[in-house]
Amino acid sequence: MSIISKKLVIAKFGGTSVADYPSMLNCARIVLSNPFTRLVVVSASSGVTNLLVELTQAHVNDERRVQLLKNIAQIQYSIIDNLPQSQHLLALIDSLLNHMSVLSESLILNRSKEVMDELLSIGEQCSSILFNEVLKQQGEYSQVFDARKVMRTNDQFGAAEPDINDIFRLCQSELLPSLNNTRFVTQGFIGANEQGRTTTLGRGGSDYSAALLAEALNATTLEIWTDVAGIYTTDPRLAANAKPIKEISFSEAAEMATFGAKILHPATILPAVRKNIEVFVGSSKQPESSGTWIRTQVNNAPVYRAVAVRRDQTLLNLHSLKMLHAQGFLAETFASLARHKISVDLITTSEVNVALTLDKTGSDSSGQQLLNDALIQELEHHCNVKIEDSLALVAIIGNNIPNTTGVCQQVFDSLSEFNIRMSSQGASQHNMCILVAEKDAAAVVQTLHRDLFEGLS
Ligand code: ASP
Ligand code: MG
């Protein structure tokens, strides 16, 4: 019986996990310790995508451009230095680095989104080749698989949307049959449109790539290896008493990914839920320390599971007397937002006002802000627009929140010292959200964690 008909594990390694040679070696050990891990998805080495994004920016002068190219090359060469000397490998990486240089030059004349995506894809292309070499150095006959052969997307360069049906079809024909005999290393973050042009899924998109591949290959498990040992009750850098969570449901994890915890790209959960694929999140630096399992069914569903924070929020306050006893105002507003590809997180309404929060970091791969002047002008046609910045969204994540007496009182009592700019609860069983000033965010999270999780109030 073939190995993958029993079990198939997809392992994704984030940028810090493949930052350098020693980190890659840790990952190689993780891969090789599990015979069911047949497909490895990698991010670009830590920092590389940021450097590439800078290369795409219009303001970068020649001197800086050369410096950026050098920095990116250096990260690759420092890994190559630890690998057996191979002309073939050097030629492969050099040709990608040359291509990068040519693309960055062509952007000076023509700021094409398509060229930017081609440029951004170099990070993952390099890391996949290098990680494959590390596996080979450990005696594995693995191969690089070009994700663009299967990760079919639309034409929206910078924030491309995957086509799930095409990805399924392509994975089943181009990738699955070979997985029994060969381990493959592929790139996260990148895809290709129907014409084969390179696209990217947006910053942090490698998790999503891995989940889409897991879905299309009917994998049993998706492992997301990063630099933290799983999901915690809050960010341990904010609250020293944050505790690791052993097991969490998809619904809670989806809220966490959306409302803060940068540990998982928000879209990652969806493909896993669709196919009921269990997801493991752990640290490649300490694979033996337990990590978090995300599953449909969990043994324990506490009211308070975690507190997450998402900074850099913008509050859009829309005011119009037309709203008074009228219909269609929200439809018009949301149609404008949708045309500009903006998704709204929180919303509260009064008779003549609507307040919406938007994620300022909700930008495309090359960092272009979505809340632009054109959209604001469009909204101003039918209402007054006020924009507030420097806000943070704090989410209390758990179970049965709207049906548990006393939650609001406990949260608001705990935060009596802080101004709560907006709050939202009741829509989801799994979260209650409050909007606070950015400057209060850390203290709000610490206070809530102390009062709701440490039982010391
Ligand atoms: N390398 C890409 C980024 O930094 C994708 C990823 O790491 O998930 O955004
Ligand atoms: Mg990343």
UniProtKB/TrEMBL annotation:
<dbReference type="InterPro" id="IPR054352">
    <property type="entry name" value="ACT_Aspartokinase"/>
</dbReference>
<dbReference type="GO" id="GO:0005829">
    <property type="term" value="C:cytosol"/>
</dbReference>
<dbReference type="InterPro" id="IPR001341">
    <property type="entry name" value="Asp_kinase"/>
</dbReference>
<feature type="binding site">
    <location>
        <position position="124"/>
    </location>
    <ligand>
        <name>substrate</name>
    </ligand>
</feature>
<dbReference type="InterPro" id="IPR018042">
    <property type="entry name" value="Aspartate_kinase_CS"/>
</dbReference>
<feature type="binding site">
    <location>
        <begin position="226"/>
        <end position="227"/>
    </location>
    <ligand>
        <name>ATP</name>
    </ligand>
</feature>
<dbReference type="GO" id="GO:0005524">
    <property type="term" value="F:ATP binding"/>
</dbReference>
<keyword id="KW-0547">Nucleotide-binding</keyword>
<dbReference type="InterPro" id="IPR005260">
    <property type="entry name" value="Asp_kin_monofn"/>
</dbReference>
<feature type="domain" description="Aspartokinase ACT">
    <location>
        <begin position="394"/>
        <end position="451"/>
    </location>
</feature>
<dbReference type="GO" id="GO:0009088">
    <property type="term" value="P:threonine biosynthetic process"/>
</dbReference>
<feature type="binding site">
    <location>
        <position position="49"/>
    </location>
    <ligand>
        <name>substrate</name>
    </ligand>
</feature>
<dbReference type="GO" id="GO:0004072">
    <property type="term" value="F:aspartate kinase activity"/>
</dbReference>
<dbReference type="GO" id="GO:0009089">
    <property type="term" value="P:lysine biosynthetic process via diaminopimelate"/>
</dbReference>
<comment type="pathway">
    <text>Amino-acid biosynthesis; L-lysine biosynthesis via DAP pathway; (S)-tetrahydrodipicolinate from L-aspartate: step 1/4.</text>
</comment>
<comment type="pathway">
    <text>Amino-acid biosynthesis; L-methionine biosynthesis via de novo pathway; L-homoserine from L-aspartate: step 1/3.</text>
</comment>
<dbReference type="InterPro" id="IPR036393">
    <property type="entry name" value="AceGlu_kinase-like_sf"/>
</dbReference>
<feature type="domain" description="Aspartate/glutamate/uridylate kinase">
    <location>
        <begin position="7"/>
        <end position="282"/>
    </location>
</feature>
<feature type="binding site">
    <location>
        <begin position="12"/>
        <end position="15"/>
    </location>
    <ligand>
        <name>ATP</name>
    </ligand>
</feature>
<dbReference type="InterPro" id="IPR045865">
    <property type="entry name" value="ACT-like_dom_sf"/>
</dbReference>
<comment type="similarity">
    <text>Belongs to the aspartokinase family.</text>
</comment>
<dbReference type="GO" id="GO:0009090">
    <property type="term" value="P:homoserine biosynthetic process"/>
</dbReference>
<dbReference type="Pfam" id="PF22468">
    <property type="entry name" value="ACT_9"/>
</dbReference>
<protein>
    <recommendedName>
        <fullName>Aspartokinase</fullName>
        <ecNumber>2.7.2.4</ecNumber>
    </recommendedName>
</protein>
<keyword id="KW-0067">ATP-binding</keyword>
<keyword id="KW-0418">Kinase</keyword>
<keyword id="KW-0808">Transferase</keyword>
<dbReference type="InterPro" id="IPR042199">
    <property type="entry name" value="AsparK_Bifunc_asparK/hSer_DH"/>
</dbReference>
<feature type="binding site">
    <location>
        <position position="232"/>
    </location>
    <ligand>
        <name>ATP</name>
    </ligand>
</feature>
<feature type="binding site">
    <location>
        <position position="237"/>
    </location>
    <ligand>
        <name>ATP</name>
    </ligand>
</feature>
<dbReference type="Pfam" id="PF00696">
    <property type="entry name" value="AA_kinase"/>
</dbReference>
<keyword id="KW-0028">Amino-acid biosynthesis</keyword>
<dbReference type="InterPro" id="IPR001048">
    <property type="entry name" value="Asp/Glu/Uridylate_kinase"/>
</dbReference>
